[in-house]
Amino acid sequence: MRWVSTLRSPETHSKEFAQAVRSLAVGCALIALLFSIPLFEWVVLGLRSDTESYLLLIPPISLYLIWTRKESIPLEAGGSRSAAAAWGLAGGIGAALYLASVGNDFPLRRPDALTLGIAAVVCLVNAVAAATLGPGTRKALRFPLLFLFFSIPMPHAVLESLEIALQHSSAEVTDWLFSATQLPHLRDGLVFQLPGISIRVAQECSGVRSTLVLFITSIVGGYLMLNTTTNRIVLVLATWALGIFRNAVRILVIAWLCVEKGPHMISSPIHTHGGPLFFSVSLLPLGGLLWLMVRMESRRRSSRPEAPAPEASRTP
Known about the structure:
It is a single chain. By secondary structure, the chain is mainly α. The protein is built from twelve helices and five strands. The protein has helices at 10-34, 36-48, 58-68, 81-102, 110-132, 135-140, 142-147, 156-180, 208-225, 229-260, 269-272, 275-303, and strands at 2-3, 79-80, 186-188, 191-194, 197-200. The chain has a three-stranded antiparallel beta sheet with strand order 3-4-5, covered by helices on one side. Strand 3 and strand 4 (191-194) form a beta hairpin. Helix 4 runs antiparallel to helix 5 and helix 10 (229-260) runs antiparallel to helix 12 (275-303). It is globular and about 75 Å long.
């Protein structure tokens, strides 16, 4: 069920929407107050975690996406009872599970409990938006609001599984690169025996952080610059392959330095602090692929024949 305010004039329209925005702001402020503890823990996690430091960037990015489209957002007040109830129910379940986990009613790792708390916050923010904003406004804001789900910390089991998958995939591509560059090596699972040194692709070296950031970057870039869902999906999938290949190239570079310069290069800055450098380099092919897709979409639109203008009817 949906209810929308009856707007009788532009002035009434403006007042109704301003009231809806105020209600949305008040609702979000109350949610922040009620969930101040998990939100504080979320900030601490983002500041201290090497893997999930990107979490703190998600809300500002959502606000930026809204700002970039502000001129095209319909200013409609009103809301949807059914959508607000659905989001509110999901948020309530998340909040109840979070409180139960904090109260030790069932065992959960602390990061997993935080996942439930932040998921409740995101669902309740969507519930308030559904209850206050009109259908056209909600449709225009759908992506920025759903993008907030990336601010939810990953459950420990999911993050660990992703790290292991990237770890083994990087080892496979590294083996191929060693063979392609004719670097002498013997492989035993995740361990590579090189002249003078043995290298193991550790779980900490899976490149999960930079791959996740690259993944989120591709989603934002596809939303802002691409028009077709197919191209957006292809771009997102390409980031995973690019992330694995980038990590394998990093291992290759470190291995060559260890063989050519000496085993001490395993502790060189390119290994310990080289992540941002290789991440920056990986943005080049991602940007090239995005540019190519934009060109293809532009050419496809320009090649479409224009619809003929309707002929004026003749009166006999």
